[in-house]
Amino acid sequence: MWPTSRNDTHEKVKEALKLIRQGEGQLVEFKNKAKFPEKIIREVVAFANSYGGHLFIGVNDDGSLAGLKYPEDEEYVLTKAISELCRPAISFTVDLLQVREDIEILHYHIHESKSKPHFAFLDKKHRYGKAFVRSADHSIQASYEVRQILKRSKKAHRPIEFEEKTRQLFKYFEDHPGITLSEYSELSGLNKKLASNKLIHLALSGALKIEPKEGGDIFLPAE
To answer: How many Å apart are CA 130 and CA 186, to the nearest integer?
Structure first.
């Protein structure tokens, strides 16, 4: 269990308000309450699987400060859910901040993980969970390709072989900003499984980068 610290220091409050003013985005998410924590853990998992992030409880979607009537209870419920429903365990800190004379909020700082991918379970008895990643101000379910890239990104990978289908792909990028798995399967003549493996390898080798999308990931040339 990660206990809440009641931290009203000027610097922490100042930093929290600065993040809130920026609005929701790749690194920031707002929730009014933690009444249904199983609906919030996807944000926690998405931050851990991406670049980390800041989850504020007691803040409305528009960034206005709602505050929490019983902040310790909200913290207990959500922290318990993160502990029980996120696997592997996720590293985070949580602070209870008094941002106005009569307004307290919770600030969860989710650290980027070194043990990706993480999964969210709707029930701790469930055998399988769902992986999520952060895309702009949304947390979306990770595709097979994204999960494989997260899982294998720390391993050594063989150099890229610029054979015909690889050259064909980079020729395609001369006129198109990116490509989906379906588009690459059609372009290359490979079935979906082989096309997927090819794109995963190119991403792991550093030749491509992947942008997770709800309607299908986009693969682009690495900068």
So the answer is: 28
- What's the pLDDT tens digit per position in 152-192? 987 755 566 667 889 999 999 999 999 999 999 999 999 99
DSSP for 116-177 reads: PPPEE-SSTT-S--B-EEEETTEEEEPPHHHHHHHHHTTS--PPP---HHHHHHHHHTTT-S
| pTM more than 0.85 | yes
- Tell me the CA distances in angstroms from 76 to 2, 107, 122, one per residue in order: 9, 13, 17
The kind and range of the H/E element at 6 are: strand 5-6
CA dihedral 135, 42, 114, 144 (to 10 degrees): -70
Q: What residues contact 162, with CB distance under 8 A and at least 6 apart?
A: none
Written as one string, the DSSP assignment of 174-207 is: TT-S-B-HHHHHHHH---HHHHHHHHHHHHHTTS
3-state DSSP call for residue 19? helix
Q: What is the DSSP letter of 36?
A: S
Torsion angles phi and psi, residue 145, rounded to 5: -65, -45
Residue 164 in tokens: 């015909």
